[in-house]
């Protein structure tokens, strides 16, 4: 639908403001030729239009021409030194151009102009991390996430630091095997940068299944799942940039290749999909996907105690995932669905114990009659990675009811114990049973 909306230049005259919005939309949707053409027309009519000049820089970055992007964006900051967004985007271009010190200076200037600007704060923290100043980077990245909890470029480096800080003495870091040189290579530089943990896991599974189906090697960047799961994928060249050009078309083609067959699959390139365009959890692949996505043994001291503590409270572990704060359209599942189901089903389970995983602690009181446990009851919290403890409990439950989003759905796909999975029925008519594998 988005591709149809922005598959051609607008007809008829546009105001400068509308033209700038069109240019930005073209940039975001990977229609970079259209973006550049609209920007050039704007600047012909209004040479001092700073927003069009900024979008030109963003388009150059998305074309993977970081040197040109940095030059364009630096010119914007010189013309508008108080434009915090321009300093931030200059920092991003410099970062991916390998100029880390200059990137840090640009990020710092953006933060000086706007103290609560999470995006350059994350960039500044990541530069410090990569330069080895990890103790300095840690609180900066944590604060960026406090300001913008769903910002992946902060969440990834922060989570990686948390893994490193909690690695048991003597435990090896996550492994990387050498890439096979007799196969075509696929990479995904954006893995983890456009979505949180579960969305990234689904994107990883889709890409790896695609690569294996067509006889290719799949190399990955440094992402959260590589540290958490028993994965040994080859490391991609960190200088490889995400390929945004015409990404909506690439996304559609990927889905066609995944579900059908093609003699011309993508090969020897980077893919940007903007999230998996397919549900990769196919029944025929269940065993190998669950094998890939097994937590590393070194994390057992963080993952096993919460499950063991819940098992001591009862024999049937019933887990609910309730999302209430950050879904894009605010279409949250009503609590009444879970309460109604519990009222009907609770007495039929053998010594049940209820666990509620939620991003809104206020909802827990609604389940008081069932004496629910939450992550606050875990005997040990995993600093910065407590969402993985919740995820693990969901993946070990005997009964799992999911809600909006992919977090609990992905945990359900990895759950080998549950005898019942529940999800909201259409139009929230109640909870219905389902299989997480299609």
Task: Write a structural description.
The protein folds into three domains: 165 residues, Serine Threonine Protein Phosphatase 5, Tetratricopeptide repeat; 108 residues, no CATH class; 137 residues, Rossmann fold (3-Layer(aba) Sandwich), CATH 3.40.50. Helices cover 49% and strands 8% of the residues. The protein starts with a helix and ends in a 5-residue tail after the last strand.
Q: Under the CATH scheme, which class of the largest domain?
A: Mainly Alpha
Widest sheet, order of strands: 5-4-6-7-8
Computed CA radius of gyration, to the nearest angstrom: 23 Å
Helix share, percent: 40-55%
The gross shape turns out to be globular
Task: Please mark out the parts with pLDDT under 50 across 5 or more consecutive residues, or reply none.
Answer: 1-6
Beta-strand content bin = 5-15%
Task: Output the number of helix runs.
Answer: 18
Major β-sheet profile: 5 strands, mixed
How would you summarize what this structure contains?
Helix content is 49%, strand content 8%. It has 18 helices and eight strands.
Name some characteristics of this structure.
438 residues; alpha/beta; Serine Threonine Protein Phosphatase 5, Tetratricopeptide repeat; Rossmann fold; 3 domains; 5-stranded mixed beta sheet; 3-stranded parallel beta sheet; 18 helices; 8 strands; 49% helix; 8% strand; disordered N terminus
């Amino acid at each position: 639908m988005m591709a149809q909306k922005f598959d051609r230049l607008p007809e008829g005259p546009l105001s400068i403001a509308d033209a700038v919005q069109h240019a930005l939309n073209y940039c975001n949707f990977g229609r970079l030729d259209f973006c550049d053409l609209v920007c050039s027309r704007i600047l012909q009519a209004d040479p001092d239009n700073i927003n069009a000049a900024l979008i030109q820089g963003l388009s150059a970055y998305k074309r993977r021409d970081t040197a040109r992007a940095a030059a364009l964006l630096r010119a914007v900051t010189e013309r508008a030194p108080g434009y915090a967004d321009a300093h931030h985007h200059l920092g991003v271009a410099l970062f991916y151009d390998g100029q880390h010190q200059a990137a840090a200076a640009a990020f710092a200037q953006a933060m000086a102009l706007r103290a609560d600007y999470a995006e350059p704060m994350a960039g500044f923290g990541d530069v410090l991390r990569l330069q080895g100043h990890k103790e300095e980077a840690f609180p900066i990245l944590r604060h960026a996430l406090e300001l913008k909890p769903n910002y992946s470029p902060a969440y990834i480096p922060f989570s990686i630091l948390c893994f490193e800080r909690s690695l048991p003495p003597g435990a090896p870091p996550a492994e990387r095997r050498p890439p096979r040189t007799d196969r075509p290579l696929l990479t995904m530089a954006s893995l983890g940068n456009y979505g949180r943990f579960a969305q990234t896991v689904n994107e990883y599974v889709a890409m790896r299944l695609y690569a294996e189906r067509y006889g290719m090697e799949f190399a990955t960047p440094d992402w959260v799942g590589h540290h958490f799961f028993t994965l040994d994928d080859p490391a991609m060249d960190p200088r490889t940039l995400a390929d945004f050009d015409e990404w909506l078309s690439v996304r559609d083609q990927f889905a066609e290749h995944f579900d059908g067959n093609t003699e011309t699959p993508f090969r020897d390139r980077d893919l940007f999909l903007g999230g998996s365009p397919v549900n990769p959890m196919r029944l025929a692949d269940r065993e190998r996907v669950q094998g890939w996505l097994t937590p590393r043994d070194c994390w057992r001291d963080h993952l096993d105690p919460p499950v063991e503590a819940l098992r001591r409270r009862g024999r049937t572990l019933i887990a609910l995932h309730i999302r209430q704060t950050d879904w894009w359209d605010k279409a949250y599942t009503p609590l009444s669905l879970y309460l109604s189901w519990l009222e009907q089903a609770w007495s039929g389970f053998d010594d049940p114990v209820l666990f509620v995983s939620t991003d809104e602690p206020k909802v827990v009181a609604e389940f008081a009659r069932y004496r629910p446990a939450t992550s606050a009851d875990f005997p040990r919290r995993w600093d910065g990675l407590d969402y993985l403890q919740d995820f693990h409990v969901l993946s070990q439950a005997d009964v799992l009811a999911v809600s909006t989003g992919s977090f609990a759905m992905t945990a359900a796909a990895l759950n080998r114990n549950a005898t019942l999975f529940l999800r909201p029925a259409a139009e929230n008519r109640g909870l219905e049973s389902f299989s997480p594998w299609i």
